[in-house]
Amino acid sequence: MNHQQVQVLATFVLLLGCRSVPKVAPGPAANNTLATYIRLFNEGQFAQALSFYDGDFHAERVQIPRAPQDDVQLIAQACAALLRRCDLRLRSVISTERVGVDSFLLTATFNDSLGRHFIAEPCCDSGVVVGESAWQFDVHKVGDGYRIGKLPLYFP
Question: Three-class SS of residue 94?
Answer without folding.
Answer: strand
